[in-house]
Design brief:
Chain A: One of its GO terms (biological process) is amino acid transport. Chain A: Keywords: Amino-acid transport, Cell membrane, Membrane, Signal, Transmembrane, Transmembrane helix, Transport. Chain A: It comes from Anaerobium acetethylicum. The complex is a heterodimer of chains A (552) and B (243). Chain A folds into 3 domains: 163 residues, Periplasmic binding protein-like II (D-Maltodextrin-Binding Protein, domain 2, 3-Layer(aba) Sandwich), CATH 3.40.190.10; 88 residues, D-Maltodextrin-Binding Protein, domain 2 (3-Layer(aba) Sandwich); 224 residues, MetI-like fold, CATH 1.10.3720.10. In chain A, 56% of the residues lie in helices and 10% in strands. Chain A is built from 19 helices and 13 strands. Chain A starts with a helix and ends with a helix. By secondary structure, chain B is α/β, with parallel strands linked by helices. Chain B has a single domain, classed as P-loop containing nucleotide triphosphate hydrolases (Rossmann fold, 3-Layer(aba) Sandwich), CATH 3.40.50.300. Chain B contains 9 helices and 10 strands. Classes of the chains: A alpha/beta (552), B alpha/beta (243). Chains A and B meet through α15 and α16 of A and α2, β6, α3, α4 and α5 of B.
């Protein structure tokens, strides 16, 4: 009976995540065949890098008009690697031309801004075409091609407020201004006298939200972002400066180039191709991109937006939720098994003397290092170190999904091992003695008597871990895993409706965690059974002999 | 008489505290032996040393002509020959009544589930718990738990059954049901070694009574001898206090 229940729940959860997460994957192959074949390249695992005839380009796909994410291939958009969405924008058009010139197939790898340089250095992508400026700092790590776009710095402000009419950066005295982290935009803020410089922000999405909410008075960016922002949100305006009144910038800053690995032979080839694209053609491409970029929806209410976002991006959200569920479920199960192993090893009675004692001490020491290390560092940092580090140091190119599951598993394992160790220690000594008294050895005692009780007792803690994992997988967006948070960011980056988009994600997260909590509570109740026993009269005893032992 | 277990010069210390001092003691086949004595006299420790829940500090435990304290001796195999009934019952909380009696047979003795179930049902009937086969330990009273614990020990079909104060943790009204089961067992010729505070039980059922005091066997003999004509002053004092 009980085993069947476990199986049923497990099957349902697995099926749910497979349907949502990977089921979409099989559809993806069918569709991929229909899309023009010279552009779309799908590696089976979605992340294997470095095939000779591929040109792998990294971009945020969330920085219109340079690059953005859309759900179809209209306007020459290109499918994103390992994903069902498409990337469009100025960068994509340039990338297509470069790939064509190189005679290779273009593969777009959607990567967080901060992950672009590491991805390039570790060889996961061949080039960065992401509206990136060739700054001196970046040039220390990577090479850049010639310039393929040049823009001026502007400040995006709220319409109708004092700063809208500014003409010179001096007018921003006393204004709260910020810019994107790790960009030169942030550095130039100090040129404004008397400015109140705010903490730099991760991405444009965050800055737009902050501006809309009045947390900042404006943010520095380049003209295309200014055009996009003011087009998408009627509350925003862009302040341009005449020559001499704006920010003093170096050409290397306002210019935009292709990032390439150091000393790559690609640099020369790409420069040659870029020189073949005329100034007029570039302006034309940028104008097109500004026109085509995901537009604002006029004066819809939040509720209408909410409905439209769900209608238009439903599959994207569901795939994200499925991926989140798949990673957290698999991670929790594997982590639980790791924890079980570590917890059991750590509680083996220590022999009083001999080589066995030394060996056991060494093993316990290593396990403690594992537990302390992974409990003591943030998962987001581990993700960066493991995913990019493994490629840099050992030339291991992990599949993104596998890396995600690996990171969540070892993290959960570190926590679970302590929970399980505590669970074993808390079992009454009499249980061990009674098992020994019927002649059981340590392994038999553990599997038949102790662990089934431990597992029952730590079920609430395990449920906690599962729920935490569902939420914490959101940090995996730094290694470009397309889980729910990452998908939501893409949606919001396209439609500029941050509140509505993230509200959908909020609800989806809650549905997942709430369902999991309820299911686990149900399992607990089933395992505990009723408090009172009704004497059986005639029927034969239940056939579920040994069922609880089977759980171990 | 055939010896089942013979103990020679057994000693046990916890740190510097010597709990058992040079114990010589024999259990014969078919015998019911009760060990009495005040708290801290070492009677429970002696019982726990016999099935190695406590490792003796010195001496020999001879079973079937072999010293089971030898390093190479398989203590798990030896323990299956000794049934143990604990003061706190210690039923496996994760198993129902039937499985408590089966799991040892299947996992340790390697019996088939069907055989194990037959054996278990036989002994559960003996202790009057056959109607509770599907109950979890948490659903039983103390007396019921202890009867199941006895059935669990019997299901392993041991040579000796050890009882460690089997009624001390029970409410007074439940003591009787457990003692009755034990009396019935005593009459079947089972070899039993019982640590107990139930003087009436010791007097009525045992073939031999052992009185322990301060880690040594002070006096042993038939119940008549111990209870009616003790030779030692400390035996007399103990009986005066308890009877």
């Amino acid at each position: 009976m009980k085993r069947k229940l476990w199986m049923k729940i497990f099957t349902i959860l697995m099926a749910m995540s497979l349907l949502l997460g990977l089921g979409a994957g099989s559809a993806r192959y069918a569709q991929a065949a229909e899309v023009s074949s010279d552009i779309v390249v799908e590696s089976a695992d979605g992340s294997a890098s470095g095939s000779e005839d591929e040109f792998r380009v990294g971009m945020e796909a969330g920085y219109p008009p340079f690059n953005w994410t859309q759900t179809d291939d209209s306007n020459g958009a290109v499918r994103i690697d390992g994903n069902k969405e498409y990337a469009g924008g100025y960068d994509v058009q340039i990338a297509k031309k470069v790939a064509e010139g190189l005679g290779k197939k273009l593969v777009i790898v959607k990567t967080e801004w901060d992950g672009l340089v590491p991805a390039l250095v570790s060889g996961k992508i061949d080039a960065i075409i992401a509206g990136m400026s060739p700054t001196a700092e970046r040039k220390e790590t990577i090479d850049f091609s010639d310039i393929y776009y040049k823009s001026d710095l502007i400040i995006v402000v709220k319409k109708g407020e004092a700063y809208e009419d500014a003409t010179s950066i001096a007018d921003f005295k006393g204004a709260k201004i910020t810019a994107q982290l790790n960009t030169f935009h942030y550095g130039v803020i100090d040129q404004i006298e008397g400015v109140i410089r705010q903490t730099a922000m991760d991405n444009f999405t965050a800055m737009r939200v902050a501006l809309e909410a009045g947390m900042i008075d404006g943010y520095v960016s380049e003209k295309p972002e200014g055009v996009s922002a003011s087009m998408a949100n009627s509350n925003f305006a862009m302040v341009e400066f005449d020559k001499g009144k704006g920010f003093a910038t170096a050409e290397e800053d306002t210019a935009i180039s292709v990032g390439i690995a150091k000393d790559s032979e690609l640099t020369g080839q790409i420069n040659e191709i870029l020189s073949g694209i005329s100034e007029e053609e570039r302006t034309e491409l940028m104008d097109e991109a500004i026109l085509e970029q995901p537009a604002s929806g006029g004066n819809k209410t939040s509720f209408q937006w909410f409905i439209d976002i769900m209608k238009e991006n439903g599959p994207m959200f569901l795939r994200g939720a499925g991926m989140t569920l798949l990673i957290s479920l698999t991670g929790t199960i594997l982590g639980f098994l790791i924890g079980l192993l570590v917890g059991v090893i750590k509680t083996i009675p220590m022999p009083l003397k001999g080589a066995g004692r030394t060996a056991q001490k060494i093993i316990n020491g290593l396990l403690s290092v594992y537990v302390e290390f992974f409990r003591g560092t943030p998962m987001i940092v581990q993700a960066m170190v493991i995913y990019y580090g493994s490629a840099l140091a050992f030339d291991i190119h992990m599949n993104r999904l596998a890396a995600a599951i690996f990171i969540v598993s070892i993290n959960t394992g570190a926590y679970m091992s302590e929970i399980i160790r505590g669970g074993i220690v808390s079992i009454d000594k009499g249980q061990f003695e009674a098992a020994q008294a019927v002649g059981m050895n340590h392994v038999q005692t553990m599997t038949n008597v102790v662990l089934p009780q431990v597992i029952r007792n730590i079920l609430p803690a395990t449920g906690n871990e599962f729920v935490i994992n569902i939420k914490d997988t959101s940090v995996l967006n730094v290694i470009a895993v397309t889980e729910l948070f990452f998908q939501t960011k893409s949606v919001a980056g396209n439609n500029f409706r941050y509140f509505e988009s993230f509200f959908v994600a909020c609800i989806l997260y809650f549905i997942m965690t709430f369902t999991v909590t309820r299911i686990l509570r149900h399992i607990e109740k089933r395992l505990d059974g009723p408090a009172n026993y009704n004497m059986i009269t005639n029927q034969a005893p239940d056939e579920d002999t040994d069922s609880t032992a089977g759980q171990a | 008489m055939e010896k089942v277990i013979e103990i020679q010069h057994l000693s046990k210390s916890f740190g510097t505290h010597e709990v058992l001092k040079d114990i010589d003691f024999t259990v014969n086949k078919g015998e019911v032996v009760c060990i009495i004595g005040s708290s801290g006299s070492g009677k429970s420790t002696l019982l726990r040393c016999i099935n190695l829940l406590e490792r003796p500090s010195g001496g020999m435990i001879i079973y079937n002509g072999e010293n089971i304290l030898d390093e190479k001796h398989d203590i798990h195999q030896y323990r299956t020959k000794l049934g143990m009934v604990f003061q706190q019952f210690n039923l496996f909380n994760n198993h129902n009544v039937l499985n408590n009696c089966i799991v040892g047979q299947v996992k340790v003795l390697g019996r088939s589930k069907e055989d194990a179930k037959k054996v278990a049902m036989k002994y559960l009937k003996n202790v009057g718990m056959e109607k509770y086969v599907n109950a979890k330990p948490s659903q039983l009273s103390g007396g019921q738990k202890q009867r199941v614990a006895i059935a669990r020990a019997l299901s392993m079909e041991p040579d000796v059954l050890l009882f460690d104060e089997p009624t001390s943790a029970l409410d007074p009204e439940m003591v009787g049901e457990v003692l009755k089961v034990m009396k019935d067992l005593a009459h079947t010729g089972l070899t039993m070694l019982v640590v107990t505070h139930e003087m009436a039980f010791a007097k009525e059922v045992s073939d031999r009574v052992v009185f322990m005091d301060k880690g040594v066997i002070a006096e042993e003999g038939t119940p008549e001898l111990i209870f009616n004509n003790p030779t030692q002053d400390r035996t007399r004092e103990f009986l005066k206090r308890t009877l």
